[in-house]
Amino acid sequence: MRDFSQDHRWLSINTATVRKSKGADLPLPDIIEACVKRGIRAISPWRDQVQAAGLANVSKLVRTHGLELSGYCRGGMFPAADAAGLKAARDDNRRAVDEAAELRAPCLVLVVGGLPGALQGKAAHKDIALARSQVRDGIAELLDYAKQARMPLAIEPLHPMYAADRACVNTMEQALDLCDELDPKRTGALGVACDVYHVWWDPKLEQQIARAGKERLLAFHVCDWLTPTADLLNDRGMMGDGVIDIPRIRGWVEAQGFAGYSEVEIFSTGNWWQRSHEETLDTCIARHKTVV
Amino acid sequence: MRDFSQDHRWLSINTATVRKSKGADLPLPDIIEACVKRGIRAISPWRDQVQAAGLANVSKLVRTHGLELSGYCRGGMFPAADAAGLKAARDDNRRAVDEAAELRAPCLVLVVGGLPGALQGKAAHKDIALARSQVRDGIAELLDYAKQARMPLAIEPLHPMYAADRACVNTMEQALDLCDELDPKRTGALGVACDVYHVWWDPKLEQQIARAGKERLLAFHVCDWLTPTADLLNDRGMMGDGVIDIPRIRGWVEAQGFAGYSEVEIFSTGNWWQRSHEETLDTCIARHKTVV
Question: CA of A129: which chain B residue's CA is closest?
Fold first, then answer.
């Protein structure tokens, strides 16, 4: 297992972590500048932030500063209530692949979607098996496109509390079943993003990380699970402030040969998004060296 | 699959559902009276409610009215930070078995506990594997005692969002692995409580219900998953108000031969606990007949 205590060479910042500074939106160029200033070597930007700043502009900034990406957030949201919705998802996912390629991301992260309409509070139906089947078909189709663009797809199993509205792929085992089905030869074109927040609770986690192996471990995300957790979406904790044994999980991932970035992704309406982004980034660096 | 549309013969009320009426605590005798008045045949009371009303008193009320129990809530909370804590949990669980026997419950439901201290906001450690090992040992020891009292133990896998503070058994598969280990002969002394709220998201649910079989399906709980869900603990929905395909899951359970009560367990600070218990119970009956 790599020693992170001496520097933050392998720290990446998911830009949602500093999406807000003291409660106000922080534009992506400002986030990039603050990261570069601190010697942070990698980021994982969100599409809406890239769009707001302009893809060409962001691409130029990233290249100028020699930044790497640890992923691109995000594609997915495959299920839909009708054919038009499925086609819209397909087209949007292809654009996401193109953007990821332009930014030289190592993978496009997929948050696969849940029951259509549930995120807006009104699910079109209750058939999660149908949603899962649409996810399978959506990934299968996107995979052909992504292979041509040489852009690996990383299925991110989301915590089961998001099964209805954000992602109906909820365990590493389920994500790897999809990988086995759609990329049986383990070409590296399809894998998983392992976010400790989503999977820490899973009694089969160690076993499934071993099953994934290096070819399918495309990203590693960290934050922490707070007790109590005040909000299902936006109350993630800073590493070290919660109950997740992050080094243990990182050890399992690195035992498979994963040697990439440890990406910090924290959504925190009540705490970190209220602080200055400088404080948040400095804390990320400190915690990366001590508790990740 | 049984037809529930004509009556509510197989409806049970978990008494937490009407723990409060218009925001005020409702004593268990009042809950029992309101259930009896509506022809509800079974309840599943919580220990704190029984204690407040007096065990002998509750036992007498139940027998006088010819009420059945669909379960007794609850034992568990096995993990502890030290030997004294483990012993206290052991002793308390034995008392729970005795109470369940006095009330002629068909099973004692086990919410197994998580990281010690996490429920109070300060976890003693982050070793969920250790907690799980203490759960295993705790159930093994309690099982000997419960067998003598002829009281089946029903492990309730809780939703993974409770893994830290309430239960580190989080899937049906995990609960059944424990059953296989501790009661390999399927004697009926150890099984599971299947609560749709906790397990509806699980891609292996149908398979694991079939694995459980009739001998191990000791209880069936219903409510619904709301989108959005405002609170991790106390924002459960009334059946029909959320996204869970309850009849599909009930069909799987009954296909194994389960022929017991469908127990309504709703924790709802912001909605149902603010209404009158009469309205809540009447709604439970109506929904039992139409969407369960």
Answer: B203
